[in-house]
Amino acid sequence: MRWTQSISTWARFLVTGALLSLSLLAFLVYNGHFSTNAAAYIRKPVSTEDTTQHSAQSCSSNSTAEWIFEVERDGDNHGLSEAQCRSAFPLLFTELEKTSDARKDNPITYNELEELPVEDGMVRAIIDKGELYIVDFGAMPVTFSRGKATLHSLHRALASFPASASLPPIEFIFTTEDYSNPTTSPIWSYSKRDEDTSIWLMPDFGYWSWPEVHIGPYKAIRQRIATVDDSLPFAQKKKQLLWRGAVAPNPDIRGSLLTHTQGRSWASVLAIDWGDAQNLQFNFLPMEDHCRYMFVAHTEGRSFSGRGKYLLNCRSVMVSHRLVWREAHHAAMIQAGPDANFVEVERDFGDLDRKIEFLIDHPEVAERIADNAVKTFRDRYLTPAAESCYWRELVRRYALACEFEPVLVKEDGEFRGTPFETSYSSVLRKSFVPLPYICFSPVSLENVALLIQQVDNKVIFVLRAIFENVSGSKPVTVALVSLMVVLNVVSNAAYIGATVRLIHGFAETGSVPCSSWLAQYYFKYQTPTHVLYLLFVANILLPLLQFASSAILATMVGAAVVLFTMEETATVRDANEVDIKKSA
Questions:
Q1: Transmembrane segments in this chain: where (predicted)?
Q2: pTM
Q3: What are phi and psi of 242, to 5 degrees?
């Protein structure tokens, strides 16, 4: 009976300890993620929207008769006025106008942003008086450089604009993935389809830099491309269609290109395996060397293809299948007539042979198309000046579609955002580093540190006290506690050690710090299926090990304390009984 009561008491303490430890861990991990929306925004007065629209219209109609865009003078000017932007790039804002018009009778609410979770690869930010603030961001296992590039590009467009303080305040969310998952909430993305009415198109990361594929800063690649074109007349370029890339991101389209060019004398089309060093040695071609060919092929990948803007910088004929995924400059693409600046073929490349043969037989037509591409894109719509103009117009159009304005400082004095300059140097640089094996985990490095400091250190302290008292007691108790210590230490050591390894690698290289195996795996297959399978398994196993070991450890500490107390109580009781018997 006494043994049954002891077991019952022990089980009761065990269950209580488990519940308390799980509650503690859950509180530490998720504390601070749930807050009220009160004072996070204010609704716009009805008249504000009308005034803003009138202001935008009047500003766009400012006289620019004395100013004409000149690429040598203005191409790298990130601070053109709104009137100059509209004069120089009249077709640049077509997609923004479509998205804005779709929201005309259905303004964006603050609740819509709240309903959109900031998941992996996403950033939530505020622009207020022309300053950029970071509110929240998700882990970026393979898109860290994209997030960094996008924020820098946006910040440059704001900081270089003399009237940046006059830009309307907005709060927004953007994704660094190739595309945004279907959603009714507003989100900024690098590309969209015609039916994606909730997606706001933004410039892609390549306008800052694309280091993973060895392209580098956008201004530098434009200079290298221009150098190649200046030294090589169009007629002396190789009369071949060039394409290099991985097939896996879009096997239907890219596979069709390989099929329709196989064995053709006019084709130099090769697949690249980013995980094979020997393949890269023989097949990889620097982007500027693409421009040494008379024809360059453009294919969509998982969504848009980032190489398109580089190809359109060449004095070559870009040959593209019919595009589904839109980019900001697509409204300026003309596929027929005397102003044609690229050649369009069917999505299965069924008419590719016929059109290439025609261009080879009519080099004057091909050269005219190539010259039009330079005039339209390299010297206008794909200039750095155009990119910054687009960013600011995105801010204005998005603001017109919102029924609210964000509030940086709540009524209780809490700041909702961190200035970009501070965020990048001290917070983003650390927190954008993905956890080594749990890249999709909601637990940030700060929360991991909090867990270790507030849970593990206290647990170890208690364990030391227990060891000091029970080391000479029951072997089972010591064995259980020892096992839990080993599990917790191993789990934490693997967790922290791998994280430190990645942070160290990031500090040395400045590149995507998700360890070489993950980067190579991603670039080798470039498909969400393989990567997600890999990360899903890792995401399930190791966080569970970390969470479970800490929970079990805390539980066993409670159990060990109970056992130790019961043993001491029994010892004292037995001693008292002996003393009583002796005295009797």
A1: 531-564
A2: 0.69
A3: -105, 140
Q: Show Cβ contacts of residue 378 under 8 Å, excluding neighbours closer than 6 positions.
A: 71, 222, 225, 226, 312, 313, 314, 315
Rg of the chain in Å (alpha carbons): 31
The DSSP H or E segment spanning 358 is helix 352-361
The H or E element containing residue 123 is strand 122-128
Q: Token match 């227990």: residue?
A: 466
**Does residue 322 come out as left (phi exceeding 0), alpha (psi in the -120 to 50 range) or beta?**
beta
Here the tokens at position 584 are 């009797």
Quickly count: other Cβ atoms within 10 Å of residue 81's Cβ: 17
Identify any residues that bridge with 188 across adjacent strands, giving them in sequence order.
Answer: 174, 200
Domains of the chain: residue spans and CATH: 2-34+433-583 (no CATH), 41-209+385-427 (no CATH), 227-380 (3.40.50.2000)
Please report the sign of the dihedral spanned by the C-alpha atoms of residue 395, residue 396, residue 400, residue 401.
negative
Q: With DSSP H G I counted as helix, E B as strand and the rest as coil, what are the percentages for the chain, rounded to 5? A: 55, 10, 30
CB–CB of 478/178 below 8 Å?
no
39-67 residue pLDDT tens: 677 777 754 444 444 344 444 444 556 89
CA distance 483 to 478: 9
Q: Is 409 left (phi over 0), alpha (psi -120 to 50) or beta?
A: beta
Measured CA to CA, the distance from residue 543 to residue 187 in angstroms comes to 29
d(CA 47, CA 49): 6
Asked whether 337 and 246 are in contact (CB, 8 A), the reply is: no
Give per-residue pLDDT as tens, 76-97: 999 999 999 999 999 999 999 9
Distance CA 513, CA 118 (A): 21
Cα(516)–Cα(523) distance, integer angstroms? 10
- DSSP-assigned letter for residue 144: H
pLDDT at 453 over 60: no
Backbone angles phi, psi at 305, to 5 degrees: -115, 125
Rounded-to-integer distance, Cα 156 and Cα 150, Å? 10
Distance CA 231, CA 172 (A): 45
* Two tokens, residue 229: 């074109």
CB 129 within 8 A of CB 419: no
